[in-house]
């Protein structure tokens, strides 16, 4: 016997009473959708962080677009030929102030082979970040001062992740004094340099601000100094060898290069093919994986809920017949079944999000070696997905429930 | 109140059409207590289903007041049943997880039923059928006779003008059957509710003021 308090009946209360009375059946339906959503939330939470980590790693491969002088080749740029052509530094400003989208970061560079302590090394003039940010016109363009952003990574929404891994932070030079320099690992070894050592380049004395860790790239053989110091030292004026651009790989495939060529017609715009193709391939793979998981979960979730609702409808044929007999129209019966499934979906979405987030927080560091924090934007997505999946799964059982006629009640014995 | 003209109902079968009802002409007046008798397969339940708008006749017309039943939409038929008809079935047709009073109130949960005094109306009816003290019991906690009385109270909750009863004493012993038939008589006489009751039992049929006998889908007597 239930508690003696009596309330009026409505369709909503009928559904609530049925939930209470058929707990086992409802809990198994709820479990099916909760587990499904938990799995996808856990996978998605981990993959969002992984995508970001992968994207930052890809960024660390370096720039993927080069703006070179018309007659120059990529080889000229890397070998730092003494006679290699140059282009005006102001072109960087032209790019920054244009309405181009998909340019994440940009770095004008001047490279020349010079004699240092009797060794031939490549001197590279760079603009430190604080100087780029200090230019109001560049600041307005929004290119700088936005913090780290992965070029091929997930959308800016994902930045709320709070992903922090210092090993993966992009190398950026915050500040560089006029006669300070940074020395690549191999160059430092060759020249016997360490932090605060002095070295003379083209007759000027420089202090080693830092010896850079080994990267396995051409940067290991280089010495980096302030762009304007290098320009003065080499008597080149406001010219650079190239402008390195970190372009979003989606923007590159969407025609970023031709847009750059339109803005700077007397230059040669080229991609560093291997980097771009790695970025594009990885990006595609991550997206495909997410889609595969989504399809699996939609399918499994819809089948589970459909199965649960089908069992519920079959078990309740007589009840539904009674409801139809006393005046419930087909549409009301249909709506009742759908509402029940959607309530299960809604609850399953919230629970699945909570369980999936907790699982990701535990599994991320344990198995993938990455810190995962709950992604709030997955909550509405989980609820919407689980509710929609539940509605899809229940649509056919609900349709058949609406068609049940009450003949069984009238043809006993 | 309810008029059936030339109502025929056939079912398709591989051997040809099977007639459940043939050319039924019947007028049911307000306040009638009609019993429908006949052997198995004589068409009694089909006749009741057609009257309730739960089955469409193959041909003929059914009119309730000035409303045509055989051509009404599902929504119109649902409203017709919800507002004008009360049902009492042999198997009671109670919802197992609803208490006695909730089962009685069930017809008022139909969207558009729009009655606000559900609890007091249901309490009054449970009092009428002598089950006020069992209002919070689930059907499984009630005897067969009590369950049928709950079903009668449920049939009355929407203040119908017509009660359709299909073998309401079929699952009850003679003593309980007598109680239920007494209840129907009171409802018919004191409240003026028209009753059409299908029964196999001559004892139950004796409570009606008019008996219709069916055989092979035709009215043999009482039209």
Please bin the fraction of helical residues of chain A: 40-55%
Looking at CATH, which topology of chain B would you report? Rossmann fold
Strand arrangement in the largest pleated sheet of chain A: 6-7-5-8-4-3-10-1-11
Number of helices of chain B: 7
Percent of residues in helices of chain B comes to: 25-40%
Q: In CATH terms, what is the architecture of chain B?
A: 3-Layer(aba) Sandwich
Taken together, the total number of domains of chain A comes to: 2
Number of domains of chain B: 1
In CATH, what is the homologous superfamily of chain B?
Answer: P-loop containing nucleotide triphosphate hydrolases
Principal-axis shape of chain A equals elongated
Q: What is the H/E order of chain B?
A: EEEHEEHEHHHEHEHEE
Assembly state: heterodimer
What distance separates the N and C termini of chain A?
30 Å
Q: Work out the largest interface and the residue count of each chain.
A: A-B, 39 and 50 residues
Strand content of chain B: 25-35%
Mean pLDDT of chain A: 78
Distance from N terminus to C terminus of chain B (CA atoms, Å) equals: 15 Å
**Which structural class fits the helix and strand makeup of chain A?**
alpha+beta
Q: What's the main sheet of chain B like?
A: 6 strands, mixed
Quick check: average pLDDT of chain B?
90
Structural class assignment of chain B? alpha/beta
Question: Which labels suit this protein?
Answer:
heterodimer, A: about 425 residues, alpha+beta, nine-stranded mixed sheet, two-stranded antiparallel sheet, 15 helices, 11 strands, about 55% helix, B: about 220 residues, alpha/beta, Rossmann fold, six-stranded mixed sheet, four-stranded antiparallel sheet, 7 helices, about 30% helix, about 25% strand, globular
